[in-house]
Amino acid sequence: MAESKTHHVVMLPWSAFGHLIPFFQLSIALAKSGIHVSFISTPKNIQRLPKPPSDLSHLLHFVEIPLPSSLDSSHLSGGEATVDIPFDKIQYLKLAWDQMQNPVKEFVSTLQPNWIICDFHPHWIVEIAKELHVKLMYYSVYSASTMVFFGPPGPLRAETSPEVLISPREWVTFPSSVAYQRNEAIAFYQGAYIENVTGLRDMDRVASIVDGANAVAFRSCYEMEGEYLNLYQELIGKPVIPIGLLPPEMSERRLVDESWSKTFEWLGAQATKSVVFVGFGSECKLSKEQVFEIAYGLELSEFPFLWALRKPSWAIHDQDSLPLGFCERTAERGKVCFGWAPQKEILAHKSIGGSLFHSGWGSIIETLMFGRTLVVLPLIVDQPLNAKALVDKGLAIEVKRNDEDGSFSRDDIAKCLREAMILEEGDKLRINTREVAKVVGDLKLQHDYMEAFVKFLRT
Ligand SMILES: O=c1ccn([C@@H]2O[C@H](COP(=O)(O)OP(=O)(O)O[C@H]3O[C@H](CO)[C@@H](O)[C@H](O)[C@H]3O)[C@@H](O)[C@H]2O)c(=O)[nH]1
After folding, report:
1. pTM, full prediction
2. ipTM of the assembly?
3. How far is 247 from 345, CA to CA, in rounded Å?
4. Can you list the domains of the chain with their CATH numbers?
5. Among the atoms of ligand 1, which is closest to the Cα of residue 361?
6. 187 bridge partner residues
7. pLDDT of amino acid 1
8. How far is ligand 1, taken at its centre, from the CA of residue 273, in Å?
């Protein structure tokens, strides 16, 4: 009992699956190291998480805190995660969380954990942690290169403009092309640097938490992001801890849902490393023009492909999502699967040679772990910054987007895929990818990072 009291962590992730999942993965890793974890989220979000291993049930506790009933329900319509809510209403989800500080405080005060590990949204947790004498850690689900680009609390709080975001930042002391294009800078500026209905800008939230935290953790490692991790520590003047890449543990006996057996049979019939996997993560909402251009690009490329496509909101039926006749024309060599795909198991399959991704940090790590070449077509938030950092390291080929409106062409998609999939053209990319795959897939190395992190939490 005394042991559990000494090492207890409260997790406070933002209500988006691109955040809930990395917090969940970290919770599992900590529980496996004997740390008690209380994972706070709303009831529906907790129900939608994967089931944790049953032998961890005494260490990993899920704490359901419902959204406040006082919030005008028409804004969220019963949704509890960003995926359920139109983009312009997501600010109300932040407002809802701001109204949840009392139940969170009550819980923390009863539990008296050693650490609170939080996301970017609950700026009020800084005061709670101080008052209750609990240490606070900010866990960034973004890469270290992205956080270096955003900068320390000073620049985060400063008046800025989209103009500032289109060049690499002046505090970066080594060659780096990490920056937004014009249209991306404008979109990001509007979402993060302008006050929303909560009375705050998102960047003020990040600044308060980085300022108030005792340390910052990244899902990263020195082998991949050493220069950015060291620079971020210098910039914020407090411990920055890479927890490792949390590579997915693949069990040979792991069963994929039966409905996928035909797709895996199809994959099994393809030549080794011949198939391109296409995915756009859990958050991106693709327009009709974007989906169609990707489809035509795949068609032009002539490679076998497996596309995990979530039905866009503008389509009524799954099949409306694609250009007329696309499935028939590509039936011999391609498959489009609608809904949530077993991405890790697909990437692990020997027939997959490369991928076309949105450049979400989680998908990058998974793709590199399995040594698959990356073509990146970044769309929102940190994705354009991740793409530039990968290109700097010779680890990806980036699809060109128009600087003014972000549009891209089918020809360029096909060209990038050819470069990534054909040996002579993409030779350098393949060599770099193989080298990094050794690091990401080195489970002992990644385990050592987690061990060092746990040691830090225990001291
Ligand atoms: O059909 C699917 C789609 C996704 N995934 C999994 O979901 C995760 C997706 O993670 P990521 O690639 O990071 O994409 P998003 O969920 O879209 O990520 C959001 O959060 C990331 C940080 O975690 C940011 O880097 C991204 O920009 C932001 O969109 C990965 O583990 C995938 O394996 C599936 O298993 N099946």
Report:
1. 0.94
2. 0.97
3. 12
4. 2-247+442-458 (3.40.50.2000), 254-440 (3.40.50.2000)
5. 25
6. none
7. 38
8. 23
